[in-house]
Amino acid sequence: MSLSTLAATLLAVVSIQQVRSEQRLNEQGQITDRYSAAGAQLGDSSIDVRLTGIYALQRIMQDSPRDQPTIVNVLCAYVRTHAALPAKQRPAIRHETNELRRDLGQPAADVAAALKVIGDRNPALDRGSTVDLRHTDLTGADLDRAHLPRADLYGARLLRASFENGDLRGAELEVTDSREANFDHADMRRIGLAGADLGGAVVASADLRGGASDLLRQELLEAVPNRFTKLSPRLARDPQVIQRECESDPPCHGEGAGLP
């Protein structure tokens, strides 16, 4: 190869790299502009505009995976702001008034959309960040199949919320109002449930192995397990737990079928 040919080849390579670098900068600039526009939409007084902003953030997250942690943090903050549990209702969830117990609401459309985007993301791209939904009112929320590993839901109201087939591994549900929530077939290994109210919560076929057995036992006795609920060996052999399984699942014969 002649020197002139070599020089021309090197020049072409450098030019291609420069073009690619400029393209990346332009793309990042466009992402930044889209992000700013979506952020402004989240603060609009119109719910339709806010919904547009939420779905715009979802599209950015899909186009630019490295921005996922930031976008998830923004959406979590949005939910904490727009579905905040009033401070006076946070402590002593087990001692709510009858008026609060009759609350049959569901999340507003924008909050539901934000939860859907959060739950549908790929957690492998979280880069160590966690979903923070502490002290939120998620009454009646549809979080079926949601990806919420290590999510922090401390003190949240999850009354009649549905997490069917959801991933809640290592999630923090301490002091939550989870009455009548649906955890059917949910992966709840190593979940934190200390102080949670699981009265009437469905944990049929859920995987509850790896949690703190002493803390989980009382919560489990208030819930609705079945013979397919996966429990730690200690809980699976507990006579009261077995009795509760049989009460919830009549075909059960008291054999402690929740053994792993």
Automatic annotation (TrEMBL):
Pfam families: Pentapeptide. Transmembrane segments: none annotated. It comes from the Bacteria. InterPro entries: 5peptide_repeat, At2g44920-like. Gene3D superfamilies: E3 ubiquitin-protein ligase SopA. This is Pentapeptide repeat-containing protein. It comes from Streptomyces rapamycinicus.
